[in-house]
Amino acid sequence: MKILMYHYVKESVKNLPFFRYLSLVNFKKQLDYFEKNFGLVSFEEFCRLKTEPKFINVLKNKILLTFDDGLKEHFTLVYPELLKRGALGIFFMPSLVLEQEKALCVHKIHYLLGRYGGGGGELLNLALELIEPSMCENENAYLFEDYYDLLDDEESVKQFKLLLNYNLKEEFKEEVLSALIKKCGLSEAQIYENYYLNREELEIMSENQMLIGSHAHSHINFLNLNAKQEADEVRKSFEILSFLNPALRTFCYPYGEFSRNSRAILQNLGVDFAFVSLDEYKKDIDEEDLRLNPLTLSRYDCNEFPFGKASKG
């Protein structure tokens, strides 16, 4: 079984000329391609894997579709398409956005880059003006340099992401991004508006055999947290999402990475399956993975397959 990862799926984003997303047209073409060549995993088929890991041998090369970040288009564009095809989607929700009307830091970064692009490094320079050396930590940044090298962003975009996602200490991210948004003449409300799924949409999807999983509470990289902080992130998220009462408890690691504490924390909280998205784990899933590593299941990015190339604007 192949597990695929998606983020943004849009028709167009005319007010964000540099925003990267998979077009709805290509998303549909990609699903057509998967149906023709592999088949798509259904709700019933995936649920059987919890108690019958050997059932994966029946599924063979079928595709399981997963969607990160709880984005609005997952309800308006993706969900109707999956429903038509009888396919399961697992949607990973960062629960903080159900509690406060404010975009997550990672999505503020996406929005700023989508609006202004690399801009010859102007956005990066603005950020550097706001950041003191003492606000940065570098010990984890090297883990992600290779990841950003694989992207086809221009250098200033890569450096902007690396600085704000990984070098800047967690406690300063909100402050720096809020100041940067103001410098650009934007508002937090402007970014948040129509960005995320709401409770009603989650309920409708869950009632129609889609699975809603946790993407932690505030989408913080687990490598930047101690064991207690990480456990709190996971526990709080599942508490907030408990109104959905899903058939399986699923989890997706923020930024695709897990710590040495992650598996024990998820196991203690009764998580059935958890998903990563790092190159060194990339592979098709087999019976052995389900039996031995159900909390570190590997995913492919949708852009590795036909019709998966990102569009802009």
Characterize the structure shown.
The protein is of the alpha/beta class. It folds into 2 domains: 2-102 and 196-312, Glycoside hydrolase/deacetylase (TIM Barrel, Alpha-Beta Barrel); 105-192. Helix content is 44%, strand content 12%. The protein has 14 helices and 10 strands. The chain has helices at 24-37, 43-51, 56-59, 73-85, 105-116, 122-130, 142-149, 155-167, 170-183, 188-192, 199-207, 227-240, 262-268, 287-292, and strands at residues 2-6, 9-10, 20-23, 63-68, 89-93, 211-214, 250-252, 273-275, 300-301, 311-312. The protein has a 5-stranded parallel sheet. Strands 2-3-10 form a 3-stranded mixed sheet. The chain has a two-stranded parallel ribbon with strand order 7-8. It starts with a strand and ends with a strand. The mean pLDDT is 92.
Properties at a glance:
313 residues; alpha/beta; TIM Barrel; 14 helices; 10 strands
Strand tally is 10
Q: How many H/I helical runs? A: 14
| Tally of structural domains | 2
Name the CATH superfamily classification of the largest domain: Glycoside hydrolase/deacetylase
Strand-helix topology:
Blueprint: E1 2-6, E2 9-10, E3 20-23, H1 24-37, H2 43-51, H3 56-59, E4 63-68, H4 73-85, E5 89-93, H5 105-116, H6 122-130, H7 142-149, H8 155-167, H9 170-183, H10 188-192, H11 199-207, E6 211-214, H12 227-240, E7 250-252, H13 262-268, E8 273-275, H14 287-292, E9 300-301, E10 311-312
Parallel strand pairs: 1-4, 1-9, 2-3, 4-5, 5-6, 7-8
Antiparallel strand pairs: 3-10
Helix pairs in contact: 5-8, 5-9, 7-8
